[in-house]
């Protein structure tokens, strides 16, 4: 596959995910095949596409079972949280539109009521993002914060029917940002751990040769690592690198 083909494939895959997202995370097999028609993918390549979509909670032909992506702890939390939400009032489409219009006009009571009306939808949206490194409760929390902000921003809309799309998008964006930030933090933690382990290993090897703890200066001279990198590793380990002087 040439470079242009690779770029086209990546762009098409992104478009397919966006289409599925607009269709409640579900897409038909025909839509997938039509999207990739220009690339003339083999059955094996299409099968890989379908596997990719499933891993990203996108159903092909029928919705995926989102509960498969939940841990036992998340399922228990979800059941309890849904019990709390069950006492919230239910309204018809006409009354809901009236609440939205009042919220768009800046009425605080209507905005608060709208938050309660959309809390169950935040729960359903959170299930789409489960299994990506963030506990369901945290996703719901981020979604609820976005919802609370969103209801105060509806005044920029022209029609009430645009409100749900705006609120859902804000909730989804908040959850996606939460997942991205968590992934970055985990990557940072892995790099920190790797640096600490590297310094600890080199210190252990040198201490074994010298039959005593080693200094930062000795370790730097022996390994070529900077003294700053070694001291940073000492600090990040909580000064627990036992073969280095100045640590526990």
From TrEMBL:
Q: Which residues form the RNA polymerase sigma-70 region domain?
A: 195-237
Report the leader peptide range.
none
The biological processes this protein is annotated with in GO are: DNA-templated transcription initiation
GO terms (molecular function) for this protein are: DNA-binding transcription factor activity
SUPFAM superfamilies the UniProt entry points to: Sigma2 domain of RNA polymerase sigma factors, Sigma3 and sigma4 domains of RNA polymerase sigma factors
Return the Pfam families for the record: Sigma70_r3
Known InterPro entries for this protein? RNA_pol_sigma70_r3, RNA_pol_sigma_r2, RNA_pol_sigma_r3/r4-like, WH-like_DNA-bd_sf
Look up the domain of life of the source.
Answer: Bacteria
- The name of this protein is RNA polymerase sigma-70 region 3 domain-containing protein
Organism field: Parablautia muri
């Amino acid at each position: 596959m040439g470079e242009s083909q690779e770029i086209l494939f990546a762009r098409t895959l992104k478009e397919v995910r966006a289409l599925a997202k607009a269709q409640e995370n579900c897409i038909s097999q025909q839509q997938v095949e039509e999207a990739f028609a220009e690339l003339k993918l083999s059955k094996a390549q299409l099968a890989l596409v379908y596997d990719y979509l499933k891993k990203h909670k996108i159903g092909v032909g029928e919705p995926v079972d989102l509960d498969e992506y939940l841990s036992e702890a998340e399922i228990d939390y979800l059941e309890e949280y849904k019990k709390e939400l069950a006492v919230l009032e239910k309204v018809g489409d006409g009354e809901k539109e009236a609440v939205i219009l009042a919220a768009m006009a800046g009425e605080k009571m209507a905005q608060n009521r709208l938050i309660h009306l959309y809390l169950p939808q935040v729960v359903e949206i959170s299930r789409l993002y489960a299994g990506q490194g963030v506990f369901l409760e945290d996703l719901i929390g981020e979604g609820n914060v976005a919802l609370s902000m969103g209801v105060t921003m509806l005044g920029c809309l022209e029609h009430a029917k645009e409100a749900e799309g705006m609120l859902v998008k804000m909730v989804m964006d908040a959850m996606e940002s939460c997942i991205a930030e968590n992934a970055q933090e985990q990557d940072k933690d892995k790099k920190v751990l790797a640096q600490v382990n590297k310094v600890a290993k080199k210190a252990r090897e040198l201490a074994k040769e010298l039959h005593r703890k080693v200094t930062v200066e000795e370790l730097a001279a022996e390994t070529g690592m900077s003294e700053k990198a070694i001291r940073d590793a000492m600090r990040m380990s909580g000064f627990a690198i036992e073969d280095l002087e100045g640590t526990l």
